[in-house]
Amino acid sequence: MNTHVLEVLGLRRSAGVHPPSNKLGAQAAIERAPLPQTVILPLQQHIGAPAKVLVKSGDEVKVGQVIAEAGGFVSAPIHATISGTVKQLPTVASSVTGKGVPGVVIESDGKDEWIDLSPADPDELSPSEIISRIKEAGIVGMGGATFPSHVKLSPPPEKPIKTVIVNGAECEPYITADDRLMIEQSERILSGLSIVMKALSVKRAFVAIEDNKPQAIARMQQAVSQMKFPGEVSVSVVPRRYPMGAEKTLIKTILGAEVPEGGLPMDVGALVHNVATLAAIHDAVVLGKPLVERVVSVTGLVKTPKNFLVRFGTPAAALIDLCGGSDERADELIFGGPMMGIAQPSFDAAIIKGTNCVLVKKSDIREEYDCIRCGRCIEACPMGLMPLQFVNLVKHEDYEHLSDFHINNCVECGSCTYGCPANIPLVSYIKVGKVELRKLGVK
Amino acid sequence: MNPTITVLVLSSIGFFSGLMIYVASRVLPKEDESLAEAARIKEFLPGADCGACGYPGCFAYAQAVAHDKQVFVKTPCPTLAQDKEGMKRLEDYLGLKAEATVGKKAVVHCTGGSHPIAEYDGLQTCAAAVQLSSGFNECSYACVGFGDCVRACPTGAMSIDEERHVAVVDWETCIGCGLCVPACPQGLTELIPANTPQYLACNYQAKRDIPGRKRCPDGCIHCHICEKVSTEGAVTWDEKKDLPIFHVDQIDTAIEKCPRHVIRKTAAYEEKEAEAVASTQESG
Predict the structure, then answer these.
(1) Mutate to test the interface with A, among B210, B214, B240 (most CBs of A within 10 A)
(2) Dist. CA A317–CA A36, nearest whole Å
(3) Residue A362 and residue A365: Cα distance in Å, rounded?
């Protein structure tokens, strides 16, 4: 337990929960995973419009070649992650929406030939050139939400960004990908940060790291003191509490500002980027390298939990084999952490831009009882909502009143479900409620 | 206080109130006759408050009929239309004859033939289950069988086939209210005219094919044979879904020729058959 003294005295409200961190792979250095034979790339790996396909069956592609262009402003292009031949253009299940979206299947030729990269010196680029390089590289929020990064970097003139927060909180249990990235590649992250600060002429930045990652804190502090930035940068150690890494919680903890309902961090002059996103921004701007790979933690009931640098489209089963296979008790595969991750229908599910963790676990199904109105979900909710009301309303199919309780403020972090003594899957109810409310057309 | 005063004050209040009620009943206009009439009409209605007529319940429909009797002639209560005797009683009461309308019935475009690819232990409702990669069956269009439609149905016409985990409709009790249509997150329930003799028990859309998620042994393979062997206009093709649409014509050859036998006969088919047999017997 790592509770603030004011919380103990009841002077500060501590929303959120303290699940055991289980950072099994925290000491495992990042390894490069072998190239997959075939990759399946869904053309929607981000929030927003699906990308529009540019290749056809039989085309030869190189690594980094654009295979689908952005389908709108809030969208991102998709690049080939291995060199080889385009085999099929099927529809695949999008791990973002669960619905069918177009996809591209590429079969490897084993050569791993890259397109010609165009490196650049970020000091010589104008802000708009930087943003267009980020957009062309197909960079999206790699903490899991997959919001296209160039949209965050293009605020309207009336909402200037004053502070950049680097999100290295990694509050979800098990996940160690960002932790390892901070320890091993802090220069890449900070170079990405200085590019973002330059592009938006921001003078202040915080690197937020939870206090359970002493190695990463030390490494980042050292790197910050050694590098030059266009403004003031400091490492901010935040208390270990879930969901500290949620954008809105982080802004509240560090800046003390609350993002208004339905608003974005830019409404309070803040911009939050995950460490992996910043590393990718560095690659895109300095090296001209599009987003084709990321660090993924493979953890849970595997023999040796590890962190891999993986090309998108690699099946999860291949990574689990590299960790010495899974335990015989394991029967569930989750992309993301245990709190917010999404269960996958098969072990062959492919890694996409937002997959930060492959969690193998034993399913833990508990019988659901009736709500006893203890209010633990209200205490746990980091957004200050009343989750039990959503469950009641969804159970009674009274969807139009969900907006009275501000359901759209819910970040689906799962803190309410974690502490519920009646084992009610509150987030599942809330997700159904959000879908039904959208059908009714209530904003 | 003197009890006599209390008694006197209370009695005078009572007397005064009584007087006011008497005056009001004399001076104020009488109760709206159409309300009483609506209450009488409601006695003939089924009372399921299903909303199939388009009014928010049986009493609202009765009020509409009490105001304008033509409402009954043009749009007779679809539930009552199932029950010939009940219909006759209301027709006799109103002294009117309802126009014969073809009601609607619900069908489920799925046979439940596809197998699960993963175990689902989440929230036991269809709406929650389909949010994880369009359900947990091989076919991503398939019925997930948690019965959101069963809970929506006001007459108990919907049920889940325990063996195949698929929703089935009993046309005898279905009143065509359409409450099951928005309830299905997979979009499998549809209202079709009650005299349609067949429907397609599949919703597999080839143009949105998902690899690794195959169609079931019963699934439509989009071969267009039903369209080719039927008379023109009996079967049209939904290009968007890449699936056939059947109309009121009976298409026996297509039902027979369908390689997947996925065209299902409805109760209307059997009725038509029985009528045809009866007419040949009469002429013979």
Answers:
(1) B210
(2) 11
(3) 10
What does chain B come to in residues?
284
B211 and A439 in contact by Cβ < 8 A? no
Query: What pLDDT is attached to residue A344?
Result: 82
Q: Of the candidates A90, A105, A439, which has its C-beta nearest B209's C-beta?
A: A90
Phi, psi of A161 (to 5 degrees): -85, 130
Q: C-alpha angle A258/A263/A264, rounded to 5°?
A: 85
Q: Do A92 and B210 touch (CB under 8 A)?
A: yes
Strand locations in A110-170 (E) = 163-168
Helix (H) or strand (E) holding A60: strand A60-61
The residue among B114, B123, B139, B208 with the most chain A CBs within 10 A of its CB, best to mutate, is B123
Q: What fold does the segment set B104-275 form as a domain?
A: Alpha-Beta Plaits (3.30.70)
Cα dihedral sign for A417, A422, A423, A426?
negative
Which residues of A are less than 8 Å from B212 in CB distance? 346, 348
**Lookup: tokens for B192:** 């079709």
Best CATH choice for the domain B34-94 from the list 1.10.15, 3.30.70, 1.20.81, 3.30.420: 1.10.15
Look at residue B133 and tell me whether its pLDDT is greater than 80: no
Note which residues in 165-194 of chain B have CB less than 8 A from chain A.
182, 185
Cβ of A345 within 8 Å of Cβ of B121? The answer is no
Residues 6+ apart with CB under 8 A from A101: A42, A43, A44, A50, A91, A92, A93, A94
Task: In whole angstroms, give the CA distance from residue B37 to residue B62.
Answer: 8
pTM: 0.81
- Of A349, A308, A443, A340, nearest to A25 by C-alpha is A308
Question: Cα-atom radius of gyration of chain B, to the nearest Å?
Answer: 28
The residue among A287, A308, A325 that closes a domain is A287
B212–chain A Cβ distance below 8 A for any pair: yes
Q: Do the beta carbons of residue A333 and residue A342 sit within 8 Å?
A: no
Determine the pLDDT at residue B4: 92
In B, which residues are within 8 Å of A105 by CB distance?
Answer: 211
Three-state DSSP state, A71: coil
Angle between helices A186-199 and A214-226 (to 10 degrees): 60
Best of B124, B131, B141 to substitute, by most chain A Cβ atoms within 10 angstroms, is: B131
Q: In chain B, where are the structural domains located?
A: 34-94, 104-275
The HSE-up count of residue B134 (CA atoms within 13 Å, CB side) is: 22
| Statement to judge: residues A273 and A131 lie in one domain | yes
Chain B residue numbers touching A103 (CB-CB < 8 A): 211
CA B20 to chain A, closest CA, distance in angstroms equals 43
Specify the length of chain A in residues. Answer: 443
Q: To the nearest whole angstrom, how far is the Cα of A345 from the nearest Cα of chain B? A: 5
Number of domains in chain A: 2
Pick from A345, A348, A428: CB nearest B128: A428
Sign of the torsion formed by the C-alpha atoms of B222, B228, B234 and B239: positive
Distance from CA of B228 to the nearest CA of A (A): 28
Summarised one tens digit per residue, pLDDT across range A194-222 is 999 999 999 999 999 999 999 999 999 99
pLDDT tens profile A391-427: 999 998 889 899 999 999 999 999 999 989 999 999 9
